[in-house]
Amino acid sequence: MMSDTITSYTSLLMGGLVAFSLTGTVSVQCVVYYRLYPQESERLKGLVACVWLLDLIHSAFIGASLYQYFIAWFGESSQIDVIPWSVAFTVVITAFQTFIAHCFFANKIYRSSQQNVYLTAPVVFLALLRLIAAATSTGEMISDKHYSVFTRPYPGWIFTTGLTLSSVVDVLIAACLCYLLRKLKSQIGSASTVMIKVVDTLTLYTLENGFLTGVATTASLICWLAMPHNLSFLGLHFVIEKLYANSILASLNTRKELRDMRPRISPWADRSLPVLSADDFSDRPRDPLNPLNPLDRYSSRPDSPTKSHIPVGLFSDLLCVPGFKLSYHS
Q1: To bridge 174 with a disulfide, which of 151, 210, 214, 302 should be the other Cys (CB 3.0-4.6 Å)?
Q2: Is there a domain that residue 171 lies in?
Q3: Residue 238 contacts by C-beta under 8 Å, 6 or more apart in sequence?
Q4: Into how many domains does the chain fold?
Q5: Which keywords belong to this entry (predicted)?
Q6: CA 234, CA 142: separation in Å to the nearest integer?
Q7: DSSP 295
Q8: pTM of the complete model
């Protein structure tokens, strides 16, 4: 139908434009990351480089797809049913980027939950199934060559499964991180306004990341199921990879903002504060001006605050910052 053809071309064009603009955001975030964290571990630098490279490759495949539809096949509306190889490869690149993002956040859950396999294993397992489903979908797209064939019950259900699993994993990750953050906040109590503020900010970031990727994936899934005869789902699918790439980079780059909360909030901001360690969370109160020494050396100080008893590693692992420094006084 003519209306489906117009909808398909419009969706491809709009999806491509949004995807290219988000690629610019990804590139800016990568540059910001390398400038903010020059001393970061090679492992994290390599992760960012991989995310950036996959995003650029994904954009190249989108560009090749748009060239095929709008230039090479200009005026041939019947070709809208043909699946170019470049479109098929955008699906598998999206799957790899999604898998990296899911594993990145699964690692944060694992470290922050004191290596709780029961929380982490379902996330990794479902993320792996999503990758397999997307890779299989790519193979079927290349083999079938036409959307009218690909949208049949088989292999259509494979693509449906991949998008569904992606949304489910997003919800699981957001739920696990929010649970851990809420648990941490309850353990902090009212002992530290600084940490409570940072935990609230982390919770907001977690919900925002999960919301954006989840909404885009769910919208693509709905269009795929409700409108299989046009390419609305594909225009949305172009954007999904970019959102996952941005979620990883935003999680890394916002660490500096979280650390900068200390001078804005803490009354001890001009002091040199220690790295959180197991000794810091002992029941013995410490002096605010010299936290490495017991308070009994300053027993005459009546207004010296005490520390809250917080499990070591939980907070710093959520931030994913080695040697993260933070004032823990109220």
Answers
A1: 210
A2: yes
A3: 12, 15, 16, 18, 19, 62, 90
A4: 1
A5: Membrane, Transmembrane, Transmembrane helix
A6: 15
A7: G
A8: 0.79
Q: Say if 289 falls within a structural domain.
A: no
* CATH classification at residue 52: 1.20.1070
184: left (phi over 0), alpha (psi -120 to 50) or beta: alpha
Structural domain including 96 reads 2-264
CA-CA-CA-CA torsion for 4, 215, 28, 18, nearest 10 degrees? 10
Residues constituting the chain: 330
**Burial grade of 302 (CB within 10 A; 0-12, 13-18, 19 or more):** exposed
